[in-house]
Design brief:
about 260 residues; alpha+beta; 17-stranded mixed β-sheet; globular
Length: about 260
């Protein structure tokens, strides 16, 4: 079987994308997806997405996301932004989109070369002495560190991801350093990739909300610098619930190819 694929990246978070509206790829073939994401024996990516036909009249398409290990995953923010860009490229949408992902319905807009992706509301943020935990479509551990540029993200992230209280289910782990009011640097260890990625969309969303909750900033527009580039998170707060959360940043097609499977 020959599969046509597209490679996209959003602030260095890279993805294999396949147009699966005709159901050409079986969604239960986790070994195939893992091989396609393998950087030595496949195409290479942090994850793989299928653009699928909508399941209701309100949606333009459905997003199905798999981690680099081949397993279906929770929501991916940068992946969602890249899939919106791909849907526009394929003529599925123009500049606005409504789609359903594993965590529910999302809206998005393409404006001034950036993808504005609306995330789910967040009503609960757990605060601990050394960190915060919240779910922004995927689970995220958020902790402040000094000298982020020299920090051992992989070793420390792996220990936290696999340790109590996360264990088998695991959590993504974000290490944060404040640069200015409303501006933060973030490095993320992602479960499923089991390594540091250049950017994580649900991660920077979690960091923005966590920094506001702990009063590290009073801004409702937060700029996040990741190793792969800059993202913005804007939001409103209503009775301690974060709503109208938008993840904003670029998404670019890298190349198109065909692989024999």
């Amino acid at each position: 079987m020959n599969i046509t694929f597209y490679k996209y990246q959003g602030t260095g978070n890279d993805f294999v994308i396949i147009d699966n509206r005709q159901s050409i790829v079986p969604k239960n073939d986790t070994k195939l997806f893992g091989r396609l994401c393998d950087r030595k024996f496949g195409i290479g990516a942090d994850g793989l997405m299928l653009l699928e036909a909508p399941t209701n009249d309100e949606d333009d398409f459905t997003m199905v996301y798999f981690n680099a290990d081949g397993n279906e995953s929770s929501m991916c923010g940068n992946g969602g932004r890249c899939l919106v860009a791909f849907a526009s490229f394929m003529g599925v949408i123009d500049t606005t989109a409504t789609f359903t992902a594993i965590d529910g319905k999302h809206q998005a807009e393409i404006k001034d070369g950036l993808i504005y992706l609306k995330m789910q509301n967040v009503a609960r943020i757990d605060e601990f002495e050394s960190h915060l935990f919240l779910d922004t479509g995927s689970p995220h551990h958020v902790t402040m560190v000094d000298e982020l540029s020299n920090y051992d993200v992989v070793a420390n992230g792996r220990a936290i991801r696999n340790g109590a209280p996360y264990y088998k289910e695991g959590s993504n782990v974000n290490f944060v350093q404040k640069e200015a009011n409303g501006v933060f640097a973030v490095r993320t260890y992602e479960r499923g990739v089991e390594d540091e990625t250049l950017s994580c969309g649900t991660g920077v969303t979690a960091v923005a909300l966590a920094m506001h909750t702990t009063k590290m900033t009073d801004n409702t527009t937060v700029v996040i610098h990741t190793p792969g580039g800059e993202l913005k998170v804007v939001f409103d707060v209503d009775k301690k619930q974060y709503k109208d959360i938008f993840l904003i940043g670029p998404a670019e097609q890298v190349f198109k190819g065909e692989i024999v499977c």
